[in-house]
Amino acid sequence: MFEWSDIRIMLAVASAGSTLGAAKCLHMNQTTVSRRIQALEHALGLTLFERDTRGYALTLNGKALLELAEAMGGTAKRIETLSRSIARGTKGSIKISAAPDMHPYWVNPVTTAYRKKNPEVFFDIDDAVFNVDLGAGEADIAVRSGDEIQDEELVVRKLGKCVWAIFCSKTYVRKFGMPRSIEDLANREMFFYSPAIVDRLKVLRYLGERIKPEQVVQTFRAPTALSRTLEFSYAVGLLPVVAGASRPELVQCFTDPGFRQNVWLATSRDSYQRPLVRDFMKFFGDFTLKDGVTLV
Q1: Where, by residue number, does the polypeptide cross the bilayer (predicted)?
Q2: FRET pair for 232, CA 20 to 30 Å: which of 84, 136, 208, 252?
Q3: Residues 255-279: tens digit of each pLDDT
């Protein structure tokens, strides 16, 4: 009889193309990986991999079993995800992931209002800059900015549009004057965002198409870092209104009809099975958000 853990190793070797690559992925010893593949082949009575100097490649027998093995892997992942979700549900807790700038103005008012009606509920806040894996149970609910969220494994609700604006420091205004429009940004040094973030957010692409690449003197991965640096710099930058307004040394220069970005609420289908998560998502969506979010 084979062991499920060996199927996991088989999938890793098939994906990596070698026992060394699989060992690194699984945080195991390469010798152990090789030994477990041999044990699996012996238990099944099949040769699953061709071995040569280039690495490991699935045989026809291995390819025939691959779909079922991947299904087993998916089931194991769902068990792990659901177990995490059930554990949080037993404790009456909800883990929410959102960018740091979102918490004070968008997340905290909602969780505070919800706890007034449900004081037994505990919220675990994850201020991740990058998206967490909801399917892996890293959070129950995520608040995300983006053009669209197209993932069949997620339950998604559109919250509204976040308003962005151009900001600069008070010192900058005294020395260079305040820009009043996109046209007025010409020849001004700017802080902007890394390509991965720009590709994901329409509002950044909109501005990026209207400024010259040579104007950008620094790029950042998140508004939090940009806003902190902007307070003490001779440059201008685009920020969510809620983020810029929280910095006492920053001045809002102007906004533009193109400075709007969709905001979404998302959860995995497994987490959505929890009544507490469903109830909070409805509450969040119905809650009147202020300070930079226009509901649509």
Answers
A1: none
A2: 208
A3: 999 999 988 999 999 889 888 999 9
